[in-house]
Hints:
By secondary structure, the protein is α/β, with parallel strands linked by helices. It has 10 helices and 10 strands.
Amino acid sequence: MTDYPPPSKALAARLRKLSSRKGREENQRFLVEGPHLVKECLLSGLVPRNLILSDEASDSIRSELEQIFIIHKNISCWTLPHKEFISLCGTITPQGVLGEFDQPRQLSWDLFGEWQHPKLAQFTSEGVTPGGQPIRIVVLDSIQEPGNVGTAIRCSAGLGANAIVLTCGCADIWNPKTLRASVGAIFRVPIWANIPHSALEQRLQTLNSTIWVADPRGKSIFECKVIPNPLILVLGNEARGPGSGWSGMAGARTIGIPLSHGLESLNVGTALAALLSAISAIESGQRRNP
């Protein structure tokens, strides 16, 4: 196996800055930990600026790196002592490899609603709305916990959402916890982040969409016989719920999941998975009984 040199002091200092949102925004870069996320980045077309290996990385991790270098020959790789490596990746049991990548340029907000545009269709092999597939947009409103944001992105991508919008106040999508929780789904669905409420409200009003705001006190989704199209599904902070401005928007209504045993709410990822699964089930019934 190849032995890699330590990074320069300047590189090590820059990598440490990427642990904060400010550092990621200033450098327009992010770190991912583990071979799976490194490969997800590569599959999405990103090429690492640097790969960082723990000096305690297993032979299997080193072998996976060698396979990456067969295809991507000009990637710089460095080795750090394990304690320094842990301080960079922020996990107790890291997998032994970090990748430093440039942040992809965010899609233009002008494209929101242009679902057949090539820059949106490229995110899935079938395109964003293949064969008239219903349009389902998930809005995450001021969700601050990175793990919840990452899980919500993963659920959205896996359960049929066409795109995701994160309002200002949400956790950074390039936060390592967000990336880990998304398990690479962040590269599989169009995402607009840091969108002001005013810009989002203005655009939604032009799309003639129905807005469902998730709220345990809302109408049970299982009472819905027809799923509107397009549909905007809004989920807010678990403690406070979506902002008060949603209730006054044209076409908005609250929708909920009946809970038992005295529970008042579910975490964002669980609630979103339940709602999207219920939507799919109701749509299947619509197709069988048009």
